[in-house]
Task: inverse folding
């Protein structure tokens, strides 16, 4: 038996494999790209005027003196207006009391601004712990979001009902051998997003986790979860570099 197959045989086997996959309806054929799952949807495009969404925020760091205080608070979003073109005007209140930021009114939206808030915090927290350029951090996130790796279909509980959705789990900085020595051991920081069309505002949960094996290095986790979210299973989505 020859060790090398002819190009014709290779092509025939590849075509047969593709045909079989299509006939079986494998999940990989219908799973969107990360960018499509996160950005190519009108997250708030169907919400009526007066809709209020509340997200519970929790910050938990091992060294509050270095990283700032741990706390729990809320992020509120309210649909104030639906325009003729289908976009929304929303008001956003981030945190409360002395920690609260000035309420903002954002016009012309179809996307959920909590996603932007989460990504901004993910980048700033990584810079706080690992240092480096914000432009570099953002570019690593863009690269991680340019594939399907780390995105899987899932089910979870929302308001007492089981809903279908997707869980994303990414490590944007893992594998960057050129810059790993500058990251102070935080290159495996990972980020997860839980989303579903059955959840108003589309996004159900955002989490960020930062830790380093270097002695004396602080760890940090942050979580943003919509009110009504039930217990979720973290182990479903495969992080880049992990084995099932």
Result:
């Amino acid at each position: 038996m020859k060790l090398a197959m002819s190009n014709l045989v290779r092509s025939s086997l590849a075509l047969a494999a593709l045909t079989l996959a299509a006939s079986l309806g494998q999940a990989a054929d219908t799973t969107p790209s990360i960018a499509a799952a996160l950005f190519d949807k009108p997250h708030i495009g169907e919400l009526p005027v007066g809709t209020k969404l509340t997200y519970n925020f929790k910050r938990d760091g091992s060294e509050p003196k270095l990283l700032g205080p741990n706390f729990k608070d809320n992020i509120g979003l309210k649909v104030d207006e639906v325009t003729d073109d289908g976009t929304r005007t929303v008001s956003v209140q981030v945190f409360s009391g002395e920690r609260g930021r000035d309420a903002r009114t954002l016009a012309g939206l179809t996307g959920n601004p909590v996603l932007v808030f989460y990504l901004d915090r993910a980048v700033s927290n990584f810079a706080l712990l690992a240092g480096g350029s914000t432009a570099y951090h953002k570019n690593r996130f863009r690269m991680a979001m340019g594939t399907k790796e780390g995105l899987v279909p899932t089910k979870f509980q929302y308001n007492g009902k089981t809903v279908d959705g997707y869980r994303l789990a990414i490590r944007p900085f893992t594998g960057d051998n050129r810059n790993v020595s500058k990251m102070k051991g935080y290159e495996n920081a990972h980020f997860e997003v839980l989303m579903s069309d059955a959840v108003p505002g589309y996004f159900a949960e955002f989490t960020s986790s930062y830790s380093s094996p270097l002695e004396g290095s602080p760890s940090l986790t942050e979580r943003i979860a919509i009110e009504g979210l039930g217990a979720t299973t973290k182990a479903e989505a495969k992080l880049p570099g992990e084995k099932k």
User: Anything to note?
Assistant: Residues 68 and 195 are 29 Å apart (CA to CA). Confidence is low (pLDDT under 50) at residues 1-28.
